[in-house]
TrEMBL record:
Record keywords: Cell wall, Cell wall biogenesis/degradation, Glycosidase, Hydrolase, Membrane, Secreted, Transmembrane, Transmembrane helix
Annotated TM spans: 21-43
SMART domains the record matches: PbH1
Record has Magnesium as a keyword: no
UniProt family annotation: Belongs to the glycosyl hydrolase 28 family.
Phylogenetic lineage: Eukaryota, Viridiplantae, Streptophyta, Embryophyta, Tracheophyta
Name of the protein: Exopolygalacturonase
Organism the protein comes from: Coffea arabica
Length: 423
């Protein structure tokens, strides 16, 4: 924010007792500081309310053109600008907000935006696309409602590898030094947020919600981006709460509550040609509740090469998670691949530490690595998982991996397999 209040707070320490002013230098410094304050305040543009551009918060009228007009005004301004979508319910057919722009822009959303229920009305892209910007902020307590129920019924991805493309709620493409904070993404038709080609982007205090039965509604998907921070958010969807695709580098995921969904996943990797390595992922202090998997790294059995390295899961709580800890290099959903071809994705320097809670299945830990490229540098420490079901004792399954153990492991991990034997 570039508001007056922020600037005023910054300079509130400049209270002067004039009886103590003994130095001409001090007076000049004080005067210069107030000149700087005045110049900063003067540099602010007045907020651009979309209603001034024709938007109506009647729950029906489409504000696409009004939002685009406000965006063009802000983007062409040499001063930092704020666009405001106030409280109320607004229809939004589609929006593409693009840069580069002349100065930083904040889009502040307090109301509810509703997508068309019919996915066919959203043409050639996503519902909301924001791209090619530096120092962009999306903030507020507003809601982006993708109204995805009709689209979920059309989703055939569980049966066909070339399934139809449904629109995401958001595509954040090629953003630098930007912040996405406070908003709610509801019932997206496909992914809620797709982050592509971004650098130094923070996503914080988000609420992302869709039913557990909604197919492919990943909460946040990151690909070919670096310096992405996901923090202090609640995500419950029908797929991964957070998924990291190829080219994800230096990603931090902290204080995320996930569930329902498929957990926090690296991959899947190795499905497409020319994939870039995943390097530097740090998942800390997260809680997973009633999810299909907890924390996992997954790759397809195929001839495509790739890599995932320097990946760390630490201080994770599992509550009734079906598969709490997973490395799966035989990932092949709906028989869309050939299991006879081992994965050529190299997984190394992966650690699981301080992970506790309950498993919803007897198989609590699965570390199944590639025969061609066995996992290297896997570290396991302080695991405490319990299973209270009727399917026998809690177990683990390991193949093509020799972990290093530290601290306490409950259950004993890889003991039956002796950490090296293929199951």
């Amino acid at each position: 924010m570039y508001g007056l209040r922020t600037v005023s707070n910054q300079y509130k320490h400049l209270t002067v007792n004039y009886s103590e002013v003994m130095s001409t230098t001090f007076c000049i410094t004080l005067f210069s500081s107030w000149l700087l304050l005045a110049s900063i305040v003067g540099a602010q543009s007045r907020p651009l309310d979309v209603r001034s551009f024709g938007a109506k918060g009647d729950g029906v009228s489409d504000i696409s053109q009004a939002l685009l007009s406000a965006w063009k005004a802000a983007c062409n301004s040499p001063k930092p600008s704020t666009i405001v979508i106030p409280r109320g319910t607004f229809g939004l057919l589609q929006a593409s907000l693009e840069g580069p722009c002349k100065a930083p822009i904040e889009l502040q959303v307090q109301g509810t935006l509703k997508a068309p229920q019919n996915p066919n009305l959203i043409k050639d892209g996503e519902w909301v696309t924001i791209q090619y910007l530096d120092h962009f902020t999306l903030s507020g307590s507003g809601t982006f409602d993708g109204q995805g129920a009709r689209a979920w019924a059309q989703n055939d991805c569980a049966k066909a590898s070339d399934c139809s493309k449904l629109p995401n709620n958001f595509s954040f493409n090629f953003l630098n030094n930007s912040i996405i904070s406070g908003i709610t993404s509801l019932n997206s038709k496909l992914f809620h947020m797709n982050v592509l080609g971004c650098n130094n982007v923070t996503l914080s205090r988000l609420t992302i919600t869709a039913p557990g039965t909604s197919l492919n509604t990943d909460g946040i998907h990151v690909g070919r981006s670096s310096g992405v921070n996901i923090t202090d958010s609640t995500i419950g969807t029908g797929d991964d709460c957070v998924s990291l695709g190829d080219g994800s580098k230096q990603v931090s995921i902290t204080n995320v509550v996930c569930g329902p969904g498929h957990g926090i996943s690296i991959g899947s990797l190795g499905r497409y040609k020319n994939e870039e390595p995943v390097v530097g992922v740090f998942v800390r202090n997260c809680t997973l509740i009633n999810t299909l998997t907890g924390v996992r790294v997954k790759s397809w059995p195929s001839a495509t090469t790739g890599a995932a390295t320097d990946v760390h899961f630490d201080d994770i709580t599992m509550r009734n998670v079906t598969s709490p800890i997973v490395i799966d290099q035989e990932y092949c959903p709906n028989n869309q691949c050939t299991l006879g071809a081992p994965s050529r994705v190299k997984i190394s320097k992966v650690s699981f530490n301080h992970i506790r809670g309950t498993s919803a299945s007897a198989l609590a830990v699965k570390l199944v690595c590639s025969k061609t490229f066995p996992c290297e540098g896997v570290e396991i420490g302080d695991i405490d998982l319990a299973y209270h079901g009727s399917l026998g004792n809690i177990t683990t399954n390991c193949a093509n991996v020799q972990p290093t153990f530290m601290g306490r492991q409950n259950p004993p991990i890889c003991a039956k397999n002796n950490a090296a034997q293929s199951s």
